[in-house]
């Protein structure tokens, strides 16, 4: 993206400047259109579950902005000479199931012949332009809430290496962020993001940088998916997670008693993770607070 700039315009509310979850364009004073796309290679062996996870992950960007998805289209790369088309049908069936759960029609899409299978969606949503949840709107002195436990990256990596399956991870990844988004709006939350590939620390750092604030995280308050800490102990840390930590480490202040394993857990690359919300949201744990200044203090 270096050297590229987004288009400017009076109706572009959210563009590419701060790497927010979706683009937002005002079409009326009371209506913004949100647009996002996401796809990835398989994170589980079960084709139907992969479709469900990829769809929930794509829809999450709309929910992270405080919006409602209204239509999605499939994005598919498929090695037609190596994998049966019936398997692709199962992936698409999983995506349709999540779309139906979200009340978001999945209408067609586009596919290409690809040596490695890929699946996801482009999603269009709508939101009140005056109530968007943005990553550049955080203020100091507010609680930080997290709506899903983290650690699915550790379990997915263990799954890839051993074949073990983890129902808890699949449950987290296929749970829509719809209810969390609605709860955030009811609580008048103005700032937030979802936790995906950059991990909790990476997405929090992006939010802090965009909002020109700092944050304090209480490691003991961050919930873990069942089995994730065992996978961490046994060394199932992905290369992406290590790169996440390398990227954000210069911006961390680490308190006594915080280990490298703690940092790797907080940097674990998530798929279809929860929402990271600036403000107290009933029903979800508070894991820290925003502060004046810069950087992330982990205690």
From TrEMBL:
Domain PurM-like C-terminal: start-end pairs: 139-233
Residues in PurM-like N-terminal domain copies: 19-127
Keyword Glycoprotein attached: no
InterPro entries tied to this protein: PurM-like_C_dom, PurM-like_C_sf, PurM-like_N, PurM-like_N_sf, SPS/SelD
Pfam families xref list: AIRS (PF00586), AIRS_C (PF02769)
Keywords: ATP-binding, Kinase, Nucleotide-binding, Selenium, Transferase
Gene3D superfamilies per UniProt: PurM-like C-terminal domain, PurM-like, N-terminal domain
Record has Disulfide bond as a keyword: no
Protein name in UniProt: Selenide, water dikinase
């Amino acid at each position: 993206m270096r050297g590229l700039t987004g288009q400017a315009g009076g109706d572009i509310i959210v563009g590419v400047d701060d790497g927010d979850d979706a683009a937002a364009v005002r079409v009326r004073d009371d209506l913004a259109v949100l647009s996002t796309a996401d796809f990835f290679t398989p994170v589980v062996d079960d084709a139907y579950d992969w479709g469900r996870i990829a769809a929930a992950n794509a829809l999450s960007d709309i929910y992270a902005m405080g919006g409602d998805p209204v239509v999605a289209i499939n994005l598919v790369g498929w090695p037609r000479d190596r994998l049966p088309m019936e398997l692709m049908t199962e992936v698409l069936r999983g995506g349709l199931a999540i779309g139906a759960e979200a009340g978001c029609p999945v209408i067609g899409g586009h596919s290409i012949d690809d040596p490695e299978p890929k699946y996801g969606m482009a999603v269009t949503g709508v939101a009140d332009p005056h109530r968007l949840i943005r990553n550049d709107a955080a203020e100091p002195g507010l609680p930080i809430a997290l709506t899903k436990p983290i650690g699915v990256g550790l379990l997915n990596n263990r799954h890839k290496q051993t074949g073990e399956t983890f129902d808890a991870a699949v449950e987290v990844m296929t749970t829509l962020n719809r209810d969390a988004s609605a709860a955030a709006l009811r609580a008048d939350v103005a700032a937030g993001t979802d936790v995906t590939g950059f991990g909790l620390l990476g997405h929090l750092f992006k939010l802090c940088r965009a909002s020109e604030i700092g944050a304090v995280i209480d490691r003991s308050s961050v919930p873990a998916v069942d089995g994730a800490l065992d996978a961490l102990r046994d060394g199932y840390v992905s290369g992406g997670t290590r790169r996440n930590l390398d990227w954000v480490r210069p911006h961390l202040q680490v308190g006594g008693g915080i280990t490298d394993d703690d940092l790797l857990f907080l940097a674990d690359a998530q798929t279809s993770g929860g929402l990271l919300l600036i403000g107290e949201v009933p029903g979800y744990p508070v894991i820290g607070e925003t502060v004046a200044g810069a950087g992330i203090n982990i205690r």
